[in-house]
Amino acid sequence: MNEIYFAGGCFWGVEEYFSRIDGVVETKVGYANGTKKNPTYEEVCTGTTRHAETVYIRYDESVITLEELLQKFFNIIDPTLLNRQGGDIGNQYRTGVYYVNEKDKNIIAKYMDEVQKNYKEKIVTELLPLSSFYLAEEYHQKYLKKNPNGYCHIDLSR
């Protein structure tokens, strides 16, 4: 098993999208790489904590590779938008790939270099080690499973 963290705007849709993928065995939403310990959703929404809404993904490498997950991630985001995705605006909605295994860094960087060739604008998606991750409140976990008609900025059919 391996794990990776994706920030792709509002975490509700990103979590739902990845939860449907064969080989993904667990997803959780939370707040990554900010400055405050154990922030609340309300605090993150102010932008002052510098956390990104992020999805933890644990996956079975014998079923799906990191490259395949990256392909799916970059299919649902616009990596050239700074601090926003869809209708969501703020630094908590920035895009990022946060790794915990140093061996993944080069794989991700190489993949992002290839993706950059598809855009005239510079990709602003962060590539950083995970420095912190705090689980979001329970009502955010599996939000779109609990609220099938809830807000989602991505096309879940992709």
UniProtKB/TrEMBL annotation:
Pfam families tied to this protein: PMSR
MF-aspect GO terms: L-methionine:thioredoxin-disulfide S-oxidoreductase activity; peptide-methionine (S)-S-oxide reductase activity
Record keywords: Oxidoreductase
Annotated catalysed reactions: [thioredoxin]-disulfide + L-methionine + H2O = L-methionine (S)-S-oxide + [thioredoxin]-dithiol; L-methionyl-[protein] + [thioredoxin]-disulfide + H2O = L-methionyl-(S)-S-oxide-[protein] + [thioredoxin]-dithiol
Record-annotated active site: 10
A biological process term (GO) from this entry: cellular response to oxidative stress
Domain Peptide methionine sulphoxide reductase MsrA residue range list: 3-153
Cellular compartments per GO CC: cytoplasm
InterPro entries reported for this sequence: Met_Sox_Rdtase_MsrA_dom (IPR002569), Met_Sox_Rdtase_MsrA_sf (IPR036509), MsrA_MetSO_reductase (IPR050162)
UniProt-listed Enzyme Commission number(s): 1.8.4.11
Superkingdom of origin organism: Bacteria
SUPFAM superfamilies: Peptide methionine sulfoxide reductase
Function: Has an important function as a repair enzyme for proteins that have been inactivated by oxidation. Catalyzes the reversible oxidation-reduction of methionine sulfoxide in proteins to methionine.
PANTHER family: MITOCHONDRIAL PEPTIDE METHIONINE SULFOXIDE REDUCTASE
Family statement: Belongs to the MsrA Met sulfoxide reductase family.
Identification of the protein by name: Peptide methionine sulfoxide reductase MsrA
Gene: msrA
